[in-house]
């Protein structure tokens, strides 16, 4: 790997530099100040067809200062946390603040909301991985996939491993920091038949390298996913149910969270403006945030405003129970922050789960979507239209792969028409969910 990364020493250094910047801003006349600093180090390996394509050893650092002079705000950043760079950033932020317009909503989050509890969230698991060992793991992953009969080519395998520290400080006297790690391994393969080429992939992403799926399992799964796409046809056009694979279902939750984010709401750029307390989903469906879950991918005791994070219930028995707000967006809306500056952390469903077989039986005739293409989601209207690939279902059973079709509807109708959630929960990201079976959508195929 690169030079040794001493996370504890980096944490102490960034905390000291952040405190220095806050004090300097006060001396230069700022009414209040906040500082965000981070440093990350890692290794990235890419291999293809049994050969090493790239080895990337990275070290990134960022230091951002925001000052408030009355209702005026100025921000500046640097990739260097040295004394001279910090002073230059603070002076630049102060200069900018003299030229900006007044914004009554600007300023730090309320001091009474600052985090005071910092539990060990078990999110820092460094991996003493040499470059040679990393290459060996990536090669083993690709080899396991290429050894499967029917695989004709490879887009390669990639391994990344990194750790870092982030620090946030402000002039309320708050100083919070956290160490973290993230490790991943992926493989993408190609198969070909008389109808053309197909590709697919698999991956594993974890905080603790001991929980990483084996290279062989990832490679074989990538091969299996690729081979099952051979012989794809275009589906019939019509209105029918759609089963979204877990990864794609998490994307639907992502669209929901974007629509209830404070920034979209105060700009009136969301189809869910003014919908607080309305029923959006079936009564059996709830969605909660658990930012203090040990070992999870987005756990943190404080948000980007320094506010203490907490469990939030965004959807309560189908009802929109809460927006997702930072201190700034809350002020713009005349509300209080939900501790979500920087987004939601660890979203979890509360719903009765069903097997894939049960969901397919309920579908009877329709499509399973395993890949989506394009950006056809309008957050203002909720209109939804995406290119897709997947499988055709008849009599509750998968019949053959399909491609080159479009699914269309509206997010509101898709949420309201949610029929069931699968027990095939994908836990690799911040959003944990299984497959979603959604009622009728428009399928445009051949």
TrEMBL record:
<dbReference type="Pfam" id="PF19289">
    <property type="entry name" value="PmbA_TldD_3rd"/>
</dbReference>
<dbReference type="InterPro" id="IPR036059">
    <property type="entry name" value="TldD/PmbA_sf"/>
</dbReference>
<dbReference type="GO" id="GO:0006508">
    <property type="term" value="P:proteolysis"/>
</dbReference>
<keyword id="KW-0378">Hydrolase</keyword>
<feature type="domain" description="Metalloprotease TldD/E central">
    <location>
        <begin position="125"/>
        <end position="230"/>
    </location>
</feature>
<dbReference type="Pfam" id="PF19290">
    <property type="entry name" value="PmbA_TldD_2nd"/>
</dbReference>
<dbReference type="InterPro" id="IPR035068">
    <property type="entry name" value="TldD/PmbA_N"/>
</dbReference>
<keyword id="KW-0645">Protease</keyword>
<comment type="similarity">
    <text>Belongs to the peptidase U62 family.</text>
</comment>
<protein>
    <submittedName>
        <fullName>Metalloprotease PmbA</fullName>
    </submittedName>
</protein>
<dbReference type="GO" id="GO:0005829">
    <property type="term" value="C:cytosol"/>
</dbReference>
<feature type="domain" description="Metalloprotease TldD/E C-terminal">
    <location>
        <begin position="237"/>
        <end position="445"/>
    </location>
</feature>
<keyword id="KW-0482">Metalloprotease</keyword>
<feature type="domain" description="Metalloprotease TldD/E N-terminal">
    <location>
        <begin position="33"/>
        <end position="97"/>
    </location>
</feature>
<dbReference type="GO" id="GO:0008237">
    <property type="term" value="F:metallopeptidase activity"/>
</dbReference>
<dbReference type="Pfam" id="PF01523">
    <property type="entry name" value="PmbA_TldD_1st"/>
</dbReference>
<dbReference type="InterPro" id="IPR045569">
    <property type="entry name" value="Metalloprtase-TldD/E_C"/>
</dbReference>
<dbReference type="InterPro" id="IPR045570">
    <property type="entry name" value="Metalloprtase-TldD/E_cen_dom"/>
</dbReference>
<dbReference type="InterPro" id="IPR002510">
    <property type="entry name" value="Metalloprtase-TldD/E_N"/>
</dbReference>
<dbReference type="InterPro" id="IPR047657">
    <property type="entry name" value="PmbA"/>
</dbReference>
């Amino acid at each position: 790997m690169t030079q040794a990364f001493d996370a504890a020493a980096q944490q102490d250094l960034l905390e000291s530099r952040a405190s220095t910047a806050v004090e300097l801003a006060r001396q230069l006349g700022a009414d209040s100040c906040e500082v965000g600093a981070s440093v990350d180090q890692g290794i990235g390996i890419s291999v293809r067809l049994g050969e090493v394509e790239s080895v990337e050893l990275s070290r990134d650092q960022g230091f951002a200062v925001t000052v408030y002079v009355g209702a005026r705000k100025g921000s500046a950043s640097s990739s260097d946390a040295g004394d001279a760079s910090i002073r230059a950033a603070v002076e630049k932020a102060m200069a900018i603040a003299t030229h900006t317009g007044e914004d009554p909503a600007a300023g730090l989050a309320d001091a009474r909301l600052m985090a005071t509890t910092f539990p060990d969230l078990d999110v820092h698991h460094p991996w003493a991985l040499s470059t040679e060992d990393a290459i060996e793991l990536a090669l083993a992953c690709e080899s396991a996939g290429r050894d499967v009969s029917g695989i004709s080519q490879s887009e390669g395998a990639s391994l990344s491993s990194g750790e870092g520290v982030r620090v946030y400080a402000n002039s309320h006297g708050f100083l919070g920091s956290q160490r973290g790690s993230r490790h991943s391994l992926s493989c993408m393969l190609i198969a070909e038949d008389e109808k053309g080429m197909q590709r697919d992939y698999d991956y594993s992403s974890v905080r603790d390298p001991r929980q990483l799926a084996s290279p062989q399992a990832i490679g074989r799964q990538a091969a299996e996913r690729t081979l099952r796409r051979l012989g794809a046809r275009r589906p019939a056009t019509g209105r029918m149910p759609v089963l979204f694979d877990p990864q794609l279902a998490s994307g639907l939750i992502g669209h929901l969270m974007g629509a209830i984010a404070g920034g979209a709401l105060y700009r009136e750029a969301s189809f869910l403006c003014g919908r607080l307390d309305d029923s959006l989903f079936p009564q059996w469906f709830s969605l909660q945030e658990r930012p203090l879950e040990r070992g999870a991918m987005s756990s943190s005791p404080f948000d980007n405003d320094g506010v203490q994070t907490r469990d939030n219930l965004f959807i309560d028995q189908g009802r929109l129970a809460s927006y997702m707000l930072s201190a700034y967006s809350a002020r713009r809306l005349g509300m209080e922050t939900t501790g979500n500056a920087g987004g939601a952390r660890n979203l979890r469903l509360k719903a009765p789960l069903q097997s894939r077989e049960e969901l397919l039986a309920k579908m009877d005739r329709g499509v399973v979507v395993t890949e989506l293409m394009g950006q056809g989601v309008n957050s203002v209207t909720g209109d939804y239209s995406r290119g897709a690939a997947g499988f055709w279902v008849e009599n509750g059973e998968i019949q053959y792969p399909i491609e080159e079709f479009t699914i269309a509807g509206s997010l509101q109708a898709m949420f309201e028409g949610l029929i069931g959630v699968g027990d095939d929960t994908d836990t690799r990201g911040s959003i944990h969910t299984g497959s979603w079976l959604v009622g009728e959508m428009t399928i445009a195929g051949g």
